[in-house]
Design a protein that fits this description.
This protein is of the alpha+beta class. It has seven helices and eleven strands. Strand 6 and strand 7 form a beta hairpin. The chain is elongated.
């Protein structure tokens, strides 16, 4: 069950706008006002920002200025934007506690950067719909979990996560498997399932309709498809992850094996 969100009031934003430096470019001034609202606690993590049109109506700014300011906040990791749903203050609980088959590294320090994830949808799908991607599952249906995955300062990637329905059905109703979940940890702690090996494949392909929609890309868009097939110690396929990365996305470091 996902956390209930609250649409934030415009009052604090208007106050911070009035207190900001008027000589600043409007979009930077608006970004500063949002940042101040977050730092003071007026805007809480996980809550939804006012609609862009409402911000335009409350302040002397146009829609392009609002969108530019929000893009600035996304780059700083302060908000996440969800197509058709709106913009939300980043919640640290959306950050994955550990990752198992990929890494993002800070280009300056080399340190591993933990990603944030946000669940977009969960559905039961037929393995036959996905051809070779899911033929390794010895079942007719699996659960598909779509997510956005990103690190602070960079745009998100789209991820489709496939797992066996007998496992996923129990997990999907638990808040722990929503934003920021580590499915590998949950599988181990609750079912004793541990990933013993991972096989990767990567190719330059057209991104899916779902990826283009959630990443705000004009279709068709050529990017990278990266698939990870995760097996237990008995060689049984347990998880399949498909990452869809748009052109220009920051590099990911792939781990060939996981014991």
């Amino acid at each position: 069950m996902q956390k209930t969100t609250t649409t934030l009031p415009l009052g604090p934003l208007i106050s911070q706008w009035d207190a900001s430096v008027p000589e600043r470019t409007k979009y930077l001034r608006l970004a500063d006002a949002f940042n101040a609202c977050i730092q003071t606690g007026d805007y809480a993590p996980g809550d939804q920002l006012p609609k862009e049109t409402d911000i335009c109506a409350a302040l002397p700014v146009g829609l392009s200025t609002v969108q530019k300011a929000l893009a600035q906040l996304v780059e700083k990791g302060l908000i996440v934007r969800r197509r058709k749903l709106g913009s939300f203050i980043t919640d640290l609980r959306d950050q994955v506690p550990e990752v198992h088959v990929y890494r993002f590294r800070d280009p300056a320090t080399g340190e591993v950067m933990m990603p944030y994830t946000r669940v977009l949808g969960v559905q039961r799908v037929a393995t036959s719909q996905y051809g070779a991607l899911l033929t390794g599952f010895d079942c007719d249906e699996v659960m598909r979990i779509d997510r956005l995955v990103w690190v602070t300062g960079y745009p998100p990637a789209f991820s489709a996560f496939f797992m066996r329905p007998e496992v996923a059905v129990e997990l999907q109703d638990n808040a722990d498997v929503q934003h920021g979940a580590s499915y590998h940890r949950l599988l181990w702690e609750r079912f004793g399932i541990r990933t013993a090996s991972v096989h990767h494949s990567a190719a330059t392909e057209l991104l899916s309709r779902q990826a283009c929609e959630h990443l705000d890309l004009a279709a068709p868009h050529v990017g990278m498809l990266w698939d990870a097939f995760e097996y237990d110690s008995e060689g049984r396929l347990q998880l399949v992850q498909r990452f869809e990365l748009p052109r220009g996305h920051r590099p990911m470091e792939l781990i060939e094996n996981k014991s």
